[in-house]
Structure formats: structure tokens, C-alpha cells
Design brief:
Layout lengths: L7 E5 L4 H12 L3 E6 L2 H13 L4 E5 L7 H13 L4 E4 L14 H29 L2 E5 L12 H22 L4 E6 L32 H13 L4 E3 L2 H12 L1 H14 L19
Parallel strand pairs: 1-2, 1-4, 2-3, 4-5, 5-6, 6-7
Bound molecules: NADP nicotinamide-adenine-dinucleotide phosphate.
NADP nicotinamide-adenine-dinucleotide phosphate binds next to α1.
Length: about 280
């Protein structure tokens, strides 16, 4: 019997990377899945995989930065499947660049998706999750534990999400709704090929060495298990756990290394029309 047998899961950011793999993992574990993101054609592809795994899929185009979109996804899921047990607030991207190269608009764009998009998903899903004593999953980042230069926008957004998740977790406990914060570390996905405006640069290269990347389906299995067990906070990768440990115990050393690396790395920020960046944040 699967971990989510007979349940209904909603995943934002289900059109690629971690969200797509997670939608499929929920299906393998017995759930019907509502798939939300902006690219409908990509969602349709994931939906076919969910159906091939023997579960029902619903595609609902959604931009988590738009008020009302997440409510539409929840309403459509409940209309089609009759209930909602899991809401995975996973949609996100990374703005990179030094503070003095970025603008308030860059930070706002980052927060609209990574923070307010998560909150929109939670507000929309909560009434239904209260009925089922359900589960909220939030994809944070190790960048929400370890702040590094050039990633201040992304890191600040993930610190915000971490505070949100860990505080709300205790507020909802009495109602039987759990909140699980996932901090992946480096996972195979498209995130490091997406620019500061949220557009995918197909030809951008993955800057993280292969040996350091966790496979997407392995990440999805770990996330599904953590959400099923109602864990509070889970770092997925060994390097992520090590980074979090090192920062907790030796923050000054980590900051000293980070400061030195700034001088050595050229900025990765870029503007529309610029060539694709050499690498991207996140982890
Ligand atoms: N991969 C990693 O190494 C890593 C590490 C730490 C944390 N994370 C976190 O994992 C989550 C998933 O990222 P990923 O790595 O799987 O990257 P990805 O492959 O680029 O997937 C990002 C997903 O978010 C969706 N999305 C972006 N903006 C959206 C918006 N405004 N409205 C709705 N959906 C939106 C994208 O779909 P559309 O473009 O179709 O809308 C896509 O499905 C993010 O929160 C990211 O911060 C990833």
C-alpha cells in the first residue's frame, strides 16, 4: 500500500524538476494529483506520466504571483477529486547577483514567487486541508539556512519561507494539519538555467558538478516520505546537511570563505539581452 493511497495531492511548480518528479511520486504512492504551473504543455506531459502510473491527473495553469490563481487550482482539484489531502508549495526560482547590482524590482520578483506564492498556495489550500487533517509541504532551500554572497535575493526569500514554515507548523498542529519544510541542496532540475526574470535559458549550462547533484526522483521519494511522516524540517542531501552543520557550528569560518570567494567569482547577474549567465544560485 502506498503512502498516499486514496489521497489527493496538489503540487505547484509541477511542470519541471522537483515538482514534476514529486507529482509522479505522489501518484506512485497512490494519490490523484492536481498539477499547477504556468506552462500548460509541460503540465500535460507530467499528467500523462501520472496517468500511466495508474492515477488521475488534473492540469490547472497557474501563476502563483497572481491573486486568485491558487484558489482556482484548489477549487478545480476539489471539484474533480472531491477532497484535498496534500498541498505542496514548490514553485520557485532564483534571482542572482550582488546586492548593488540588483534592484528592489529584482527582490520583489523573487519574493512574489518564492514567498508570497507559497503563502497564496497555503491560504488557498488550508480550508480544504482542515477538513482532511492534511499536509502542507514547502520547498525551501539550504540557502534558507546558509546565506552566501551573490544569492542574497534567493537566500532572503528562503530564509523568509523557513521562518514562515517553522512558525505556522505549530499554529496548525492542534487542527491536525502538518507543515513540512524541505531543504533540498543541489538537485537535478532546470532552476540554474532560469534567469532573473524567471525565463528558462535552454542552452545555459548546469554549473554544479554532476557528482554533487541528487537525482530528481530520489529527491521526490525523500520529500514524499517526509511529508507523509509529517516531519517538520528535512534537508535532503549530504552536502546540504554538512553545510547546515558547518554554518551552525563555524559561522565565522563559513563567512570568511564566502567573503574570499566573492573576489574570485565574477557576478552572475544578468539583464534581458545579456548572454546566459555562467551559473546560478540555489541549493
Ligand atoms: N534544484 C535544486 O537544486 C533546488 C535546491 C534548493 C531548492 N530548490 C527549490 O525547489 C523548488 C523547485 O525548483 P526546481 O529545482 O525543481 O526548479 P525548476 O525545474 O526550474 O522548476 C521550477 C518550477 O516552478 C514553477 N514556477 C516558477 N515560477 C512560477 C510561477 N510564477 N507560478 C507558478 N509556477 C512557477 C515552474 O513552472 P512554470 O515555469 O511552468 O511556471 C517550474 O515548474 C523551488 O522552490 C526551488 O527554489 C531547488
Amino acid at each position: 500500500m502506498g503512502l498516499f493511497e486514496g489521497k489527493v495531492a496538489l503540487v505547484t511548480g509541477a511542470s519541471s524538476g522537483i515538482g514534476a518528479a514529486l507529482a509522479l511520486e505522489f501518484a506512485r504512492q497512490g494519490a490523484d494529483v492536481a498539477l499547477a504551473a504556468r506552462r500548460e504543455d509541460r503540465l500535460a506531459r507530467v499528467a500523462r506520466e501520472v496517468e500511466a502510473a495508474g492515477r488521475r491527473a488534473l492540469v490547472v495553469p497557474c501563476d502563483v504571483t497572481r491573486d486568485g490563481d491558487c484558489e482556482r487550482v484548489v477549487a478545480a482539484a476539489v471539484e474533480r477529486f472531491g477532497r484535498l489531502d496534500v498541498a505542496m508549495a514548490n514553485a520557485g526560482f532564483g534571482v542572482s547577483g550582488r546586492f548593488d547590482e540588483l534592484t528592489l524590482a529584482d527582490y520583489r520578483r523573487q519574493f512574489e514567487v518564492n514567498v508570497f506564492g507559497v503563502m497564496r498556495t497555503m491560504y488557498a489550500a488550508l480550508p480544504e486541508l482542515r477538513k482532511t487533517r492534511g499536509r502542507i509541504g514547502i520547498t525551501g532551500s539550504v540557502s534558507g539556512i546558509v546565506p552566501l554572497p551573490i544569492t542574497s535575493a534567493y537566500s532572503a526569500s528562503k530564509f523568509a519561507v523557513r521562518g514562515l514554515a517553522l512558525a505556522v507548523c505549530d499554529e496548525l498542529r492542534a487542527e491536525g494539519v502538518s507543515v513540512t519544510l524541505i531543504e533540498p541542496g543541489f538537485v537535478v532540475s532546470e532552476i540554474r538555467k532560469v534567469d532573473n526574470l524567471g525565463r528558462l535559458r535552454e542552452t545555459a549550462r548546469e554549473p554544479i558538478p554532476k557528482w554533487l547533484l541528487l537525482a530528481t526522483d530520489a529527491a521526490a521519494r525523500k520529500i514524499a516520505r517526509a511529508v507523509a511522516r509529517r516531519r517538520r524540517e528535512v534537508v535532503l542531501t549530504f552536502h546540504g546537511k554538512f553545510g547546515a552543520w558547518a554554518y551552525r557550528h563555524f559561522p565565522r569560518t563559513v563567512h570568511a570563505f564566502a567573503a574570499r570567494s566573492v573576489g574570485e567569482r565574477r557576478s552572475r547577474s544578468f539583464r534581458p539581452g545579456d548572454p546566459p549567465p555562467p551559473d546560478r544560485p540555489a541549493g
